Amino acid sequence: MPGLVALLVNHRPARLRGHSLIDALNLDERRPARLQSLLARWRVAPQEMYQARPTVVFAAIGQGRAEGKISPEEESAVLSKLLTHWALQSTLQASASCGAIPLRSCGCRAAV
């Protein structure tokens, strides 16, 4: 098992442009003390949670649950709001991208 773990975390897939999985995950940001700090800050300024990367938000909320600082009900409510927000943002971004594609002229509006 240790060999497999080492292989996975040190793998450098082309999609990561030379970075390993460990580099891409930014483990310093996911240390328990950091997650606790983020959770405390988000309790004061919850709007900041909406700007954070989803993986970090899930990690911080999971850390809070593991430590008993978040109830199952609070976890459910917060994640529901965040998932709805992220889904809406994704839909709006996709819609804006589609609307930004210029149509090619068919040449049927010739100058008179």
Walk me through the topology.
Layout: H1 2-10, H2 21-25, H3 32-44, H4 54-66, H5 72-99
Q: Can you give a write-up of this model?
A:
The protein is mainly α and 112 residues long. It has a domain at 27-82. It is built from five helices and no strands. The protein is flat. The model has no long low-confidence stretch (mean pLDDT 87).
What's the short story on this structure?
This protein is an all-alpha fold. The protein is 61% helix and 0% strand.
Task: Write a concise keyword list for the protein shown above.
112 residues; mainly alpha; 5 helices
Order of helices and strands: HHHHH
Q: How many beta-strand runs?
A: 0
Please tally the helical runs, counting DSSP H or I stretches of 4 or more residues. Answer: 5
How confident is the prediction overall: mean pLDDT?
A: 87
Structural class: mainly alpha
Strand content: under 5%
What's the story with the biggest beta sheet?
A: none
Q: How widely separated are the two ends?
A: 75 Å
Share of helix, binned? 55-70%
Cα shape:
flat
> What does the radius of gyration come to?
21 Å
Oligomer: single chain
Low-confidence runs: none
